[in-house]
Amino acid sequence: MQNKKENFSEWYNEILETAEMSDKRYPVKGMNVWLPYGLKAMNMIDLLARELSEDHGIEEVRFPVLITRNQLAVEFEHLKGFEGELYWVTKGGYDQLDIDMALRPTSESAMYPMFSLWIRNHADLPKRIFQIVSVYRYETKHTRSFLRVREIHFYEAHTAHESYEDAERQIGDYMKIWEGLNRTLKLPHVINRRPDWDKFPGAVYTIAADAIMPGGRTLQVATMHHYGENFSKTYDIRYSDESGESHYVHQTTYGMSERLLGAVIGIHGDDMGLILPSGIAPVQVVIVPIPSQSADTASYGAEIMRTLRMEGIRCTVDTRDGYTPGWKYNYWEMKGVPVRIEVGEKEVSSQSVTLAVRTIKGRRKTSLKDLTKSVREALAEHDEKLEYNSGRVIGESVRHAEKVEDMKGQFSYFAYWCGNRECSDRIESETEKNCLGVTLSHPSKGKCVVCGRDGDRAMFSRTY
Amino acid sequence: MQNKKENFSEWYNEILETAEMSDKRYPVKGMNVWLPYGLKAMNMIDLLARELSEDHGIEEVRFPVLITRNQLAVEFEHLKGFEGELYWVTKGGYDQLDIDMALRPTSESAMYPMFSLWIRNHADLPKRIFQIVSVYRYETKHTRSFLRVREIHFYEAHTAHESYEDAERQIGDYMKIWEGLNRTLKLPHVINRRPDWDKFPGAVYTIAADAIMPGGRTLQVATMHHYGENFSKTYDIRYSDESGESHYVHQTTYGMSERLLGAVIGIHGDDMGLILPSGIAPVQVVIVPIPSQSADTASYGAEIMRTLRMEGIRCTVDTRDGYTPGWKYNYWEMKGVPVRIEVGEKEVSSQSVTLAVRTIKGRRKTSLKDLTKSVREALAEHDEKLEYNSGRVIGESVRHAEKVEDMKGQFSYFAYWCGNRECSDRIESETEKNCLGVTLSHPSKGKCVVCGRDGDRAMFSRTY
Question: ipTM score of the complex?
């Protein structure tokens, strides 16, 4: 296995292949095959996103993938943001289509003509929907599994509200959804409000969660946009208030993608391989019976598996022939399984098991009657360790810079910034770090590192 | 509501709209929006298909939607079956693509180049994968929600085996998956082996489940194909046996789609609206508190909901203002909810509930302490009723014909058939019924209704 610290990029590619997450040999570049293990982990993330969305009153829908040029053309500045990245369907069967249709790059232009039909009066508001689908971008940059691909597994929520303030409260709900999701994923991250010139095309403002990747680069893993009336005026989405007066709705969106999985892999993994948080691990516990002449360790292992499965713990037993226990330990460590249970002669005779936690050194013994409790504790300790590591990453990889010259290293940087583009442009050109905007999760005020005027803490980093 | 018996087609369209399953006003014809209620029911079907697949060792994957012309071109007769129905992506950004790419109409040509990389020797076999994705057909026929659309929600399993016989055993597994799924869906259906000239392009043979729709037409809802070596020779998918000798793999596929939901809706519904089997009902139990001056029926209803949810029963309470209890009963009957619980003053004071089952006349009382048990019994009775109705449909809608002239009515027909095309062509032209092939689920031998030679029981019907 590659050394993660010295060569993150090659380590990342190797682990995706070795752990069988994704296969990038598909004949269309940047469009990869989701292999069972990677897809299972992504399905777990989707399940969390579904539950959190529904808890917040956002309902699941599914819109068509094709968007006609007419639907798109009305999109003012929004379309310009995607124009160069659209895939176009121009033929159906043997015929040229009457109108070209794009593969969805995101679904504003697919959904909002329907919003205009669905929303009539204030009783129809708030309208809150989400979908989990593939979106398509004709990427010209170098592609990389889960981080930059041409077919992107995507979560998008879209809402409509009576007022700007209602929509702003929705952004607060999105933040709760993000926090709920990250209670499982444990990603070290910073919440930033993007500079105006870098917000989503068509948005009033954009807030992003930027995960801190190894090597000090950041990866945008979630974005929340307040659209105000920008889209509703374009798509004519209006409601009548109680007095019958007509108003445009105020809208928001929230987007996340398979980058979440890329971030989990990149951030938590080590030189042994993957490390998965227990909430998304396809296998939470692996049982390795150690073959024995005098005790039936395989049936003892199977019994343990049944017990744990009854408790809703995702569990498997590795009874493969022709592999040593040591080889199996390495294999499942590489797969990032949080807890391993070893059962040999001694364990059978003493009705106990030996536990190893992926993120904690050493082994522990526990009696069979405390099995479930001990396994739950071990999973919790594993997740706490990831949480602890996550906090440490912020401390180690994000430096506070007092002046522009301090921002040239392999880190992300917090620095006070007045909010003006000239100042951030100078930082960007001198340090090759992008301005991610004012930091909302670690707010603080100070003098701009460039011009000395009053400013806010902002974040600068190389980005994926 | 339309009369289902007199005007099935309008009844079907109306119920999809009223129950908010699907919205067909999306600007691309034949591509519809999945609304929350319809999508929830479909998600339940998908969940069953996932569990059954994994129980049978078939692992979930996800392949890209785009297939290059090169991948497709090698597809011999298979491609010819789809050529006129492909959507083509020809542009990316501002550029013409180097090679046109089709939206997947089905995934043989996407998957099998990867099979050729994945499969090296006999230890790699059997290889069994499935995916649940959208597939695309540029339909020229009249479209109808869930039954004939241009973006189809699709389940497809693909397997590779060492021998023809191993692959044939896989078809047996598919049949078990189908039966498992239909234990929940309760669709009246017949299993037929398609005539050679109507098998899937590229298959050695095709077996289909044909559901019996109202009005006597049939709807193909599941297909299983034995591919033999037809595709493996085209895509060069070979394995080495133990002696190192190279062989082509034998392949199979299994396909199902959103038609399953269309069949459930069309077959089980009545003039009150939808009727959903409990296993896929987004809401299994609705609680309607009847407003009262002297008792807090709303909090009593909420308590019942909590109890049922703790037991894993999907349950909601309808506390909407401004609607009468009667209006709410009709609303939830229209939505096809299997069990309704009414709680008024009397129920609160006697610590009981009144239950109504969607498919059974009358109401029943039960004490609060027997709540869960009574609800489970009511759900089971509801499903048994659907099972009973399903059996009745076969008896009533499929007639046995002794001669060709008997096959001209509004039914499906069993008739003995020698297997020759001239004979089935004559039946088709005289009766406007299609030959669905020899019936495997009700086998019997007799003299061909056309030529009098030895034959097998076969099925003839108008099809969707």
Answer: 0.96
